Amino acid sequence: MFISESKPIAVIDVSHPFFDTNLSWLSYNYRLLLEAEDESVPATERLRHLAGYSYQIDEFFRSRIPLLNAMRGVSKDILDKLNLYPDTLLEHILETVENQLTKFDEILSSGVVPALLEGDLHLYFKEPFREEHRDFVSSFFVEKVFRHVQPVFLEGRRSAKITFFEPDALYFVLRLLRRGEPGEPWFAYVNIPVGEVGRFVKLPKLDGQKHVAFLDDIVLANMKMLFPGYEVQDCFALRVERESELAVDDEFPAAVTQRITRQLEKKNYVLPHQYFCEMGMPAEMKAYLSDRLGIQVAEFYERGKYLYYQDFKAFPSTGKKLEYTHQKAVPHAELRAGESIFDVLNRSDQLLHLPYHSIDPVVRFFNEAAVDPYVREIYVSLYKIHAHSFLVNSLISAARNGKRVVAFAELNPKFDIHENIHWARKMKDAGVKIIFSLPGLKVHAKIALIKRKVKKGWDRYAYLGTGGFYRMTSREFVDHALLTSHREITNELELLFGYLVTRDVPSKFKYLPFNYLMVSQFNMNKKIIELIDREVKNSRSGLKAAVTVKINQLQDQSMIAKLYQAGQAGVEIQIIVSDCCCLIPELPTISDNITVTRLVDRYAENSRIFYFYNRGKEEIFLSSGDWTFRNLHHRIDVGFPILDDYLRSQLLQVLRNYLADNQKSVKLDTYQNNHPIVSDSQKVRAQEANYRLTERVEHRTPRLFNL
């Protein structure tokens, strides 16, 4: 069973009732640890939650710590205005992270590794290889690993520039002694070729038991082969974090951003690399590396017994005993092969609940467009170009078939830029027009438009989703996608794509007439506030009023203030988050009428659903963007209404399942502690319930039953 944090992780300032983003992020990270700690979760799934924690904490250090360090150089008047005190906050953060990492190590070494063993899988974890495996380990190293490693000395006549450390790669740093030659030690490093070989290696079974090893340990076991004539005195892992962008403009209003930027420029502030080392690295080794790297010893961040636990995400398949039971993707009853998908959409809108639904209809949507002789134009926002995305091949095919294809993509340091550029070139060579995001024009929306020439003029078909195309094939994320030929929605989407092609900043196009779509930097902020204000008006008139927001992150202070105002006016507000939440629930006189739950389960929650009671004429919107300052003011995100009664009823039940969850949801208190939901009612697990809902929807006669 879950446990909550043992003590509050912040002090609430009621004059500024917004929870700190950094501490809320850490609260979410702690929730991931709780899921990894849960013994009812299969062992390899627990590893994947540890991988999720590792990713989140690395991303936290990549983006949040540099920003806070930079803010230490900003004038006091700005910090007071922002209610931000970076020195105190950093101290609290580092203490919290240290405690979480200790818990991480305990869960892994004392919980998950033994649980794997109970399932007949032995993960070598900082232990010598058994005699029966040593020949295999040696042979594997020679045949698969040796050609990819690069042992390099760091000093003397064998010296090499230490800038050879590549960001996001793993290394061993060694202290060596020459055999038979007493004297000063030699320092060297060797890469761990995870990209070429993989992080985990399956070893031969012994007595019916499976065995898996870290590649790190296989390299370490063969170190004598890499440095013949030397004795290894110390060997510790090192990783250099890729430089991040100091995205001040994503955090603060323009006027504040300009002042902060000017002050940092005057001080010649440069974003440093970040260095993570294996726990227990000797002081002598740290001192040597800090001297060669030109950094302070204090800038090394110690991690666990291994680095980059994100790789647990790719842990080898271990069989049914240690994994969740496979959930077969549900075919969509109205979008089965055999009938043109455009004919289906001419009759009615269609909704996909991912990953529960099969993605075949989305694949068919683009494949059919690629070969349909009447389709003339295709516009799509890819966000990230991925080699394994079905969409890339469809767009290449469409362009080669003579259609105008325009694709918008993001070049982001968090992505594999080389892969993005490689596939962008392939698409461009085929005739696809690629438009990359600009600093003032970053397209985060998950949208596509297909224009089809018919006798009466043009038919338009749209895809609008809450999550990226590149994620679909992995079946790891919860999202929703709408396929529609709705005239006003498709016309407005064409208007948006027409604007995006201009590559101009939104401020020059402020008055684009979006009525059905909510587009950030245009009308999204205004539209959401109007919808909340309508509920406030209804409540003050003595009518029932309610708002439910299912979202990843809730950070924008103006939006939170509006929710506070609505709650104080009697509107019932329920927030379902998966990530950060800067709204403080159940704060006397401020948020008594607001509850916040957080859900972490088998699949990563990525969908955004906005519900408004509207005097019983309930309205639901889906969106690609969270309520953060960045998404509302510095991205192009798209929200869209679900107008079909049957589809809306499905999403209403989806929300009911989330709100009824008493297995994987936790309730957030005023201090962002994660409390289990104690209930005497029937057990409800939202993701399982939503999978069953999807099955019911597709296994009965469509549109003829009440959900």
Provide a quick synopsis of the model:
This protein has 707 residues and is α+β, with helices and mostly antiparallel strands. The protein has 20 helices and 26 strands. The longest helix has 33 residues, at 86-118.
- In round numbers, the mean pLDDT is 89
Q: Please work out how many helical segments DSSP would assign.
A: 20
Estimate the helix proportion, in percent: 25-40%
Kindly estimate the percentage of residues that lie in beta strands according to DSSP: 15-25%
Strand order of the largest sheet: 17-24-23-22-18-19-20-25-26
- Helix-strand category: alpha+beta
Q: Describe the largest sheet.
A: 9 strands, mixed
Low-confidence stretches: 157-161
Structure notes:
Helix 12 packs parallel to helix 13. The strands form four sheets. Strands 17-24-23-22-18-19-20-25-26 form a nine-stranded mixed β-sheet, sandwiched between helices. Strands 10, 11, 12, 13, 14, 15, 16 and 21 form an eight-stranded mixed β-sheet that branches. A six-stranded mixed β-sheet has the order 2-4-3-7-8-9. About 1% of the residues have low confidence. The protein is globular, with a radius of gyration of 27 Å. It has 20 helices and 26 strands. The chain is an alpha+beta fold and 707 residues long.
Descriptive terms for the model:
single chain, 707 residues, alpha+beta, 9-stranded mixed beta sheet, 8-stranded mixed beta sheet
